[in-house]
Amino acid sequence: MSKLVLEELTKRFDNIVAVDKISLEVAEGEFVTLLGPSGCGKTTTLRTVAGFYKPDEGRVKFNERVMNDVPPVKRNTAMCFQSYALFPHMNVWDPHMNVWDNIAFGLKMRKLPSQEQKKRVSEALGILSLEGMEKRKPGQLSGGQQQRVALARAIVTQPDILLFDEPLSNLDAKLRVQVRVEIKEMQKRLGITSIYVTHDQDEALAISDRIVVMNQGRIEQVGDPQEIYLRPRTSFVAGFIGLANIFKARILGFEGNLTLLSAPFGALRVDLGRSYPIGAELDLSFRPESMSPWTGVGGNKLKGTILHAIFMGDAMDLFVDVAGHRLRARAGSAARIAAGDEVEFSIPESTFQVLE
Amino acid sequence: MRRDEFTITTLGTQTRKNLYILLAAFFILVQLVWVGLPILMTVLWSLVHPDYPWSYPQMFPEKLSFAQWRFVFRYTNIVRALKTSYSVAPLSVLLAFFLALPTAYALGRKKFAGKKLFMTLVLLPIIMPGMVVALFLSRVFTSFGLAQSFFGLVLAHTLMGLPYMIRVLTTSFEAIPQDVIDAAENLGATSFSKIKDIFLPMVRPGLLAGMVFAFTTSIEEFNLTFIIGTPTFETVPTILYSFLGYNFIRTNASVIALIMMVPNILMLFAVERILKSDYLSASLGKL
Ligand SMILES: Nc1ncnc2c1ncn2[C@@H]1O[C@H](COP(=O)(O)OP(=O)(O)OP(=O)(O)O)[C@@H](O)[C@H]1O
Ligand SMILES: [Mg+2]
């Protein structure tokens, strides 16, 4: 169990800056997720923590110890690779390393007693629904099964730091949820510091203690899932996680705690939590679920024409034209709304978020 | 109208299919003629009866016998040559293996200045005429006192097989995904276990292919052996060559050619089988 500290970490490939001055502190036993678009430097960050890359600048510290020059073998991390990286072979004469051998590899290297090895591998097989596949070779498994073997191989070692690189990307929706719950439970039980990479925002929101949103090698925002979702600080974060209506507005004045704004789709009364000079231009966002058909009380009242109404099972996804501006809104799944309808919406004063 | 079009398109694919079959048949035929016919001729020549010479208008020899085979085994040093050939070959393969492995590892997995140049140098002996290489090397061997010695012979054959071995192994080393090596290190693999569990198994196909190359090269090596080995050491090819050239005796040469060739072919089939199982097991979805 280790605390992990990254200090101004930079990693370049030729002239590409893959990771750009990242600073991050991960507490002992914490579960932190790196979330960001393809190519933003998530894998590079993990590989630098594992020791496969040497930072060009900055430091990697486990607890108080600087790890920059410690080889991967001595770091006691376990990584679940994006490419799985299963071992296809056992040795030259019997070239078949099966599922069991793969999962047990790290335990063998740690010279654990065979009783303990057996116990841990069996447990991992159970967690990942791989029972009965112990004797199969990696080449005889589906992509999702290979991925689960890769995951099992990492978690059985119970290292100081676990590094997951999109470990569930190839599983079907049901298994993905089931496995992520199991991972999280095991991680909490053993208190292993974990860094988790994913593209899937729902997964990130569900599993993380904290989320690090990355973009082009930099950190955009760090916060717990609620903060990231409800209080995005940049338009990138607002746009990347969930859906957001993003717009520019000018400050007209104040009314008690509330700020009066002129937005492209009308005047708004919003609660920004602090004051800005009159006349200032702000970038603002709010979530589609904050904008719903008016029920007769409070909020900003807006009238719009429905462009599309998409039934999604648990809700109705609406594309609305308000004074020539397109907004996304939500209605309950029982609502009877169709394209072309004129509908009055309300947006609560406190749901607006100022973006940097 | 519609129906006509339909017929035309099916006809089109049918014709194309036939064309492919025809083409395949043609190339198989060429292969058969190219490889099969000489072997068949060699077998027949080796079985010609000494009293019934096989000459032009005849399709087949009039009478077959093992007389040529008996002659070769009785009046030449073929048995001793076989012993020499088949003790030099495995030893030189072994030596080439130990020399090629670290070289190929460095070439396949490390970055260093002058790598391209080195690769070209390694391949040079393959593209240079064998006799020229032999002439150069024989001079070196002689000045080091390695001529007419068993070790010299093994070393000579090692050098002839080495380029193939290094080349094939380098490609195998290059093909190992970095992630797999990293995964092993990440899980705490020692250098020994990395070699045993990751590198050796993953270069196994290349290793086997390289060894087959080196082995057959050694069995068939003539130039250098002839210059630095004979008369102390005779190998199967030097005996074969004694029946060629000015004292050309096709029947005896055929016998020796077969003796030289058949074990090689058998070995090739055996290795092919092993390699096939390797490729199957190595066909990981995402590696
Ligand atoms: N070995 C390498 N050599 C050169 N450039 C690299 C290398 N590895 C990564 N990069 C570059 O560094 C940047 C970050 O790559 P990285 O693999 O960390 O992205 P990622 O966030 O993991 O993306 P993805 O979600 O697609 O896996 C990319 O622009 C990539 O092209
Ligand atoms: Mg990645």
Describe this structure in words.
The complex is a heterodimer of chains A (356) and B (287). In chain A, helix 2 packs parallel to helix 4 and helix 3 (114-127) crosses helix 4. The two termini of chain A are 36 Å apart. Chain A has helices spanning 42-50, 99-109, 114-127, 143-155, 173-190, 201-207, 225-230, 235-240, and strands at residues 4-13, 16-26, 31-35, 57-62, 65-66, 77-80, 161-165, 193-198, 210-215, 218-223, 245-255, 258-263, 266-270, 281-286, 292-293, 300-311, 315-322, 325-332, 342-347, 353-355. Chain A has 356 residues and is of the alpha+beta class. In chain A, the strands form 4 sheets. In chain A, strands 6-7-8-3-9-10 form a 6-stranded mixed beta sheet, with helices on both faces. A 5-stranded antiparallel beta sheet of chain A has the order 13-12-11-14-20. In chain A, a hairpin with a 2-residue loop joins strand 4 and strand 5. With 287 residues, chain B is mainly α. Chain B has one domain (77-283): MetI-like (MetI-like fold, Orthogonal Bundle). Chain B contains 11 helices and no strands. In chain B, helix 4 packs across helix 6. The N and C termini of chain B lie far apart (52 Å). Mean pLDDT of chain B is 84; it is low at 280-287. Chain A binds chain B through residues 47, 50, 52, 71-73, 76-79, 81, 83-92, 95-97, 105-106, 109-110, 137-139, 141-143, 146, 153, 157, and chain B through 177, 179-180, 182-190, 193, 196-198, 200-202, 204, 207, 277-278, 280-287. The complex binds adenosine-5'-triphosphate and magnesium ion. Residues 42-43, 82, 165 of chain A line the site of magnesium ion (MG).
